[in-house]
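Page 37, continued from 36.
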């Protein structure tokens, strides 16, 4: 019985180590107007064109408090995180309590 438990623990550790190794990401946070284009191309084989970068810059919405969103349709539909929505609604409305949205 102890050998079986040991084998399971060892197998778990080995699988976790393999998953961690394959999930290793290229680290970095870059502004879209200062992308390391050569490094991205060398690491991924993808060359980002200037028209794609320009479109990405225009589709990004930045709000106070380091919140970001993206326009995802020509009609102005915006995609953002839940906590950004609650914070913006709370800051711009005195008549409602939007903290109940956090429970939904």
């Amino acid at each position: 019985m102890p050998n079986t438990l040991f084998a399971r623990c060892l197998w778990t550790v080995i699988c976790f180590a393999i998953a961690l190794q394959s999930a290793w990401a290229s680290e970095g946070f870059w502004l879209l107007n200062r992308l390391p284009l050569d490094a991205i191309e060398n690491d991924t084989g993808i060359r980002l064109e200037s028209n794609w970068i320009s479109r990405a810059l225009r589709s990004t919405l930045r709000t106070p408090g380091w919140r970001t969103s993206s326009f995802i349709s020509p009609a102005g539909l915006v995609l953002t995180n839940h906590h950004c929505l609650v914070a913006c609604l709370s800051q711009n409305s005195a008549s409602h309590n939007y903290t109940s949205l956090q429970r939904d």
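The first helix runs from residue 2 to 22. Flag for discussion at group meeting. The chain has a mean pLDDT of 75.
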